[in-house]
Amino acid sequence: MDAQEFVDTISSENKTALSRLGSSKALYALTGGEMDEGPILAGAADRAHYAFETVDGWEGDVFETTADTAREHYETIVDEHGDHEPGERPAMFETLAEQDETAARLGGLVGWTLVAKKTFEQLTGFFVGQADPQTSQVFRDLGGDIEELRQAALDALAEDGDWDAAETAASAVVQAAYEDYFETLEALGVNPKPVC
Predict the structure, then answer these.
(1) Which whole number is the average pLDDT over 2-28?
(2) How many Å separate Cα 64 from the centre of its chain?
(3) pTM reported for the whole predicted model
(4) What share of the chain is helix, strand, coil (3-state, %, to 5)?
(5) Which domain of life is it from (predicted)?
(6) Residue 194 has what pLDDT?
(7) CB distance 124 to 136 below 8 Å
């Protein structure tokens, strides 16, 4: 397997989950149904905070770069939002934190980047719709960073070679994010299934 085959495999295995995580309902789930600028920025800040917290301290250049980037993302989003107190840690970061082997951690990062890219696309679209080109560009740029982190993780995986462990972890992270999304929407009385 190579890097592109790996991404294609994870995307195919989790096609429904990633499709729905890339829908407009994903922001509704992110904020618990509060589709206003403040809660949306707070939800985005939570994601960046827990990405940093989860990976911080893992040994390896890719993990250090990921932690630094996530911290920078958090600071950037908080600059847009103002004061922020992190909420509950999202399930996908609980799953990522459970990975203790290098290949599984790298795979978990790839899974996280696939979800994060979808989130940043929705955030960009939201602020375009709010006629706020400055903030939409911020999230467009952050999405570009996520793609770079994914490529770095894939390059490291190509050297590690344990694609099976990475695949299991990547899918687990995506599915944890999807289950969180699904359960949140159901609790809000919203049908999670149709893609918007």
Answers:
(1) 95
(2) 17
(3) 0.95
(4) 80, 0, 20
(5) Archaea
(6) 62
(7) yes
Alpha-carbon distance 97 to 52, whole Å? 11
Q: Which domain holds residue 80?
A: 3-187
195 pLDDT exceeds 60? no
Contact of 44 with 119, CB cutoff 8 Å:
yes
Q: What is the CATH number of the domain that holds 129?
A: 1.20.910
Structural tokens at position 103? 């290949």
The residue type of 171 is: S
The one-letter code for the residue type at 10 is I
Give the pLDDT of residue 193: 76
* DSSP, residue by residue, 164-192: HHHHHHHHHHHHHHHHHHHHHHHHTT---
- Three-state DSSP state, 141: helix
Tens of pLDDT, residue by residue over 106-120, are 999 999 999 999 999
